[in-house]
Design a protein that fits this description.
Layout (H helix, E strand, L loop, with lengths): L2 H8 L3 H13 L3 E6 L2 E6 L1 H4 L4
Antiparallel strand pairs: 1-2
Helix pairs in contact: 1-2
């Protein structure tokens, strides 16, 4: 999912969403891949398996 879709979905400021995405990336809970000029994020199943 592109970062701007998160902003639309949760109704928070872009800066707030970016900060949360940064934290999730640093925890390796999500991974981001560049899609042109934007970043597309996905859950990292390897990081989430221990939570199940």
């Amino acid at each position: 999912m592109h970062w701007w879709r998160f902003v639309e979905a949760v109704g928070l400021a872009q800066s707030t969403v970016s900060e949360h995405l940064r934290i999730l990336r640093s925890a390796k809970a999500i991974r981001g891949e560049f899609d042109g000029a934007s970043v597309c994020y996905a859950l990292n199943p390897d990081a989430l398996c221990p939570l199940a």
